[in-house]
Write a structure and sequence with these properties.
Blueprint: H1 2-17, E1 20-24, E2 35-39, H2 45-53, E3 59-64, H3 71-79, E4 82-85, H4 92-95, H5 98-110, E5 114-117, H6 135-147, E6 152-160, E7 169-174, E8 178-179, H7 188-206, H8 216-225, H9 233-241, H10 257-266, H11 271-281, H12 290-316, H13 319-332
Parallel strand pairs: 1-7, 2-5, 2-6, 3-4, 3-5
Antiparallel strand pairs: 6-7, 6-8
Length: 343
């Protein structure tokens, strides 16, 4: 029950955090049987939350172990069915603990549960699919080898209009299922290479993928200048193939002075949490983590602050005045997106 309530609250928070959440081909997700969701990783914890709240299946996720260091964060992650995965940088001795996690994954999948994994191994803001690690193939092929399970891999593509912005938009594309038994021969190395290649090819079609790393920034600038829809990987990938690198790169500014003025006025209602966010923002060292911190801060701190102020107003005036304040705060909070402090 706690998981379902927390999932519902996170889903509500995500729909408030994002202007649009577009889910494509959700029908591809099997109603029954184990699934290994394999997705690109551009936006830290937000990626996992989007998949968890936009599919009907109860899903566990593999998450880097260092995220569990804080006790409160550990409690929330465990309630969200996150499983720690250790990396070499965490120490050779800790990597051995992954064996127990892999065994747990085998059992979960064999019992019909779903697991989400980000096989690029790290997160990055660049609009491209990085080389996949073999960890997900170890889980997939290991499950089939141990239990002969009818396991499905579901490729997922996550595309952001602007990774770090509050009230940006995001699209999730669920690809066609890949049946692991079609790749299983008992030769792990050979099977792993073939499975990685198949999954990688499908994932590249589900995200905006700029293959040319040498000209990445030029291509990205040209796409922006041409008004590319980063939420639609099919059209944008075609545009990438047809880009003329000799074209001049235009720039544009989408800020509205009117909206900025209104946002500055309304933000006085949220001055304390905004100042706290500004202080926290300066401590974030990894740019990819900005959206995750922003979402968590917005979904927990701002509501608590508004509730506290609402209770104060109720104690001073009356219940209706307090409720009116809460409604006003909830309806006007998205305008804070136009403040530089939340960009």
């Amino acid at each position: 029950m706690f998981y379902n309530l927390l999932k519902a609250y996170i889903a509500l928070g995500l729909h408030y955090f994002f202007k649009r959440i577009i889910v494509v081909n959700q029908k591809n997700i099997p109603e029954n049987g184990p699934i290994l969701f394999v997705a690109n990783h551009q936006n830290a914890l937000v990626d996992a939350l989007l998949i968890a709240t936009n599919n009907r299946r109860q899903t566990y996720f593999l998450t880097r172990a260092d995220a569990f260091k804080n006790k409160l964060v550990q409690y929330l992650l465990e309630r969200l069915k996150m499983l720690p995965v250790f990396r070499i940088r965490d120490g050779i001795s800790t990597v051995n603990q992954n064996n127990a996690i892999f065994e747990q994954c085998f059992d979960l999948l064999n019992n019909g549960y779903c697991i989400g994994i980000f096989p690029e191994g790290n997160h990055d803001l660049k609009r491209r699919l990085r080389p996949l690690s073999k960890g997900f193939t170890r889980i997939a092929l290991g499950t089939v080898e141990k239990y002969q399970t009818e396991l499905t891999i579901m490729p997922v593509g996550i595309n952001y209009s602007a990774h770090q912005n509050f009230r940006g938009s995001v699209s999730l594309y669920f690809g066609k299922a890949i049946h692991v038994k079609d790749f299983y021969t008992g030769n792990f190395n050979s099977d792993s290479v073939k499975l990685k290649a198949a999954v990688s090819a499908k994932m590249k079609n589900l995200i905006v993928h700029i293959e040319d790393t040498d000209n990445y920034e030029k291509i990205l600038s040209q796409l922006k200048a041409n008004g590319a829809d980063f939420l639609n990987p099919f059209e944008t990938n075609l545009a990438v193939e047809n880009i003329d690198h000799t074209n001049s790169m235009a720039s544009y500014n989408t800020k509205s002075r009117g909206k900025m003025f209104l946002a500055n006025v309304l933000s006085m209602n949220s001055l304390i949490p905004l100042l706290l966010w500004n202080r926290l923002y300066k401590t974030i060292k990894d740019p990819v983590m900005i959206a995750t911190f922003k979402f968590c801060f917005g979904v927990f701190v701002f509501p608590l602050f508004y509730l506290a102020q609402g209770l104060i107003i109720i104690s001073i005036l009356n219940v209706w005045a307090g409720l009116a304040y809460l409604v006003f705060s909830v309806l006007t909070a998205p305008i804070l997106a136009h403040r530089n402090i939340l960009k």
